[in-house]
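G., the chain you wanted modeled:
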Amino acid sequence: MKKIVIFAVVMVGMISFTSCSKDDGPDVQKGKTAKFTLSAPGLTSEDIVAFVFTGSMNGQVSGTSWKINGITQDNQGVIQIKNELLIGNKTVIVETTKPLDNIIVTFGGSSHNTPYTIKLRAEINGKIENDISDIVNETYSKSLNY
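Predicted structure as tokens:
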């Protein structure tokens, strides 16, 4: 009889821990958020620089994925940053507007006469993943996947 009582107490205890679960709240968003800080010190109007950002969710490049300097880029799954936003030692901030499964950043350029520096700082889910500072002497290109 004692074994049956112990068995019953153990079973009741197990059922009380497994029968009901606390509401986990809203669905957790999947994907990654990103913030990129770009600059090209020394860039002139004769030089060329370009950054291309592509984001996808569930394998699809879709809708509005990006902000440039805080301004949402409506209906843009792919954006490009060129010379005019960076000449004069300007800094550009590119951010995701929603979590994305896959983020591809391709960037590069060419120097006409004097070298310039191409800088990219990538923060993924709030953590610095890359902090690149490379000199562009003639031609340069790089691609990063997150």
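The first strand starts at residue 34 and ends at 39.

Shout if anything looks off.
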